[in-house]
Design goal:
single chain; 123 residues; alpha/beta; 26% helix; globular
């Protein structure tokens, strides 16, 4: 399994701040976006992301206000966080992907599918 970080740093601006992300696995594998629950950074996948990277090209990120991403002024909406996912996908070179989210990230995923349906392979 290979961890790929996009140069110069794995950050992208969403207009309100910076979002941190990492890319794992082979670019030839099917794309998969993993999004964590409220207040948990990408580190809380606890090996799951690396396991999925054996079969998928995996994108993990820190939602706004979590981990290494910046914390713009609240309020945060699941709709705006869905747009954050699209911004990170653009920066990481993911045109579309399978989406897997836990808890709040499942709600973000629903908004992502509504706002960016052409980018969702499965939810």
């Amino acid at each position: 399994m290979r961890r790929v970080l996009r140069p110069p740093m794995p950050f992208v601006s969403n207009g309100a701040g910076r979002l941190y992300y990492e890319v794992l696995g082979s670019p030839e594998a099917p794309p998969l976006v993993l999004v964590r629950v409220l207040a948990r950074s990408h580190r809380y996948w606890l090996g799951f992301a690396e396991l999925m990277a054996k079969d998928f090209h995996v994108l993990i990120l820190d939602n706004r206000g979590v981990g290494q991403s910046s914390a713009p002024r609240p309020p945060y909406s699941t709709r705006s966080m869905a747009d954050d996912i699209a911004t990170v996908m653009d920066a990481a070179g993911f045109e579309k992907a399978h989406y897997f989210g836990l808890s709040l990230a499942g709600m973000i995923g629903q908004w992502f599918a509504i706002r960016h349906p052409h980018r969702v392979m499965s939810l």
